């Protein structure tokens, strides 16, 4: 168990470039923590540069949301659970977040650097105020080593204005994560993650428009590349059976219904469970221009960042809708 660590992030909003650092991490887990770059990528989603008007995470949530992520390493059998509570920007333009990490990580050789290629993630709005994502990519220890797969299932919940019209283009948004840089500085005991993120509308038709009908109770349809997956809700997992050769495989019924049957999760086995607890962290949003906007929640004027102003604009669909949302 590790306590007393700090998370800091610096964002260049015009470029969608994020720099995230976790300090006071001892060597016995520091190199291993390079494998969970998703800690930094969620900040990339939050402040991604936008393409063709596609909103980033801040425009959707205002910086106030909860995120849970399950990170699986199928090749090694390790699994990590991440729980985050983003509390929104304060008067100094700092965004506070509470982070908890538990589970086990694959071992990274001493003084090795983890490399991650560019990858795509699709974020699907499965219900009002709920966004889910299922992504598979890989990492490696240096350029000459083999790729190690990693599977990330994440759920983001936030308070969505119930009076805002639903735009079908927003049902699934694509995040392009590029120029990944990950390193653990053993002398300074700091893990660093950096990436450039860009959000865009889905280029092809949304597979979940037809896939929703294939997903049953306790599951959600999420876009996975050009296809879709039915992902079990939190607290449930896919039903598996054992065949005559004692090999674990999905049941025939599950295969025919695109993994739509989910049962209550009773137990999860983890190889070993070191726990990392990260207290309230500060994320500073770097902006070159402040915009004076009206804060309708408290009926007073305040200075907000350009991103925050864009968020306000994103929710001002109509005068009536705005009035209802702030009543």
From TrEMBL:
Alphabetical list of SMART domains matching this protein: G2F (SM00682)
Pfam families (alphabetical): G2F (PF07474)
Nidogen G2 beta-barrel domain sequence ranges: 1-209
Subcellular compartments: Secreted, Extracellular space, Extracellular matrix
InterPro entries for this protein: G2_nidogen/fibulin_G2F, GFP
Repeat recorded as keyword: no
Keywords: Calcium, Extracellular matrix, Glycoprotein, Secreted, Signal
Main location: secreted
Annotated protein name in UniProt: Nidogen G2 beta-barrel domain-containing protein
